Amino acid sequence: MRSVATWDGRAVLDIGCGSGFHLPWLASTAASVVGVEPHGDLIALARRRTRRLPHVTVLQGTAQQLPVPDASVDVVHARWAYFFGPGCEPGLAELDRVVRRGGTAYVVDNDPTRSTFGSWFRRGYPEVDPAAVERFWSTRGWTRIPVDMRWSFGSRADLESVVRIEFAAQVADSVLAEHTGTEVDYAVNVWWRDY
Question: How far is CA 116 from the centre of its chain?
């Protein structure tokens, strides 16, 4: 993301911040960070994680109704908050409202066209059409940066528990039966757009 635009000294919005894992990282150089999350239990975890960071605020809200003023944000970070392109138009309309001129938005999502995890994703979510997703973002002025990463767990039990969160039981059982070890290669797309 830094290869596109920095958030140093800028106002950052983390949409779908979950337990706040990325908030301290963003806050280490940002002027201010607002995390938005719809789930109360995750909000509590994010607030606890950032309680010593006075320039971080965590608010309850959704991508479709962001609880921040118009033109108040310089950089938006969303990981797995805008799922699979088509259908997230209301959330993108909110970005149009809240991002200042000269701002940048990043959306990080799965790339099901490559990697071991990508093949698992296609099995678990056959209704997601990767070509339609790419068309969705591209026709709206977003640019894709493909990123290769990996999951690495301290134990097989940890890997299995995360796979069972990501997929229905039948798919999880199937992919785990075929996969050995505690690592999985994983591909994502970082979609970005300037405003």
Answer: 19
DSSP 49: H
The helix (H) or strand (E) run that includes residue 151 is: strand 143-152
60, 35 contact by CB (below 8 A): no
User: Quick one: residue 26, left, alpha or beta (phi over 0 = left, psi -120 to 50 = alpha)?
Assistant: alpha
Each residue of 69-88: pLDDT tens digit? 999 999 999 997 766 788 88
Q: What are phi and psi of 126, to 5 degrees?
A: -65, -15
Q: State the greatest distance between any 2 C-alpha atoms of the chain, in Å, as a whole number.
A: 50
Structure token pair of residue 124: 């678990």
Paired tokens of 83: 């799922």
d(CA 108, CA 139): 17
Stated pTM of the model: 0.91
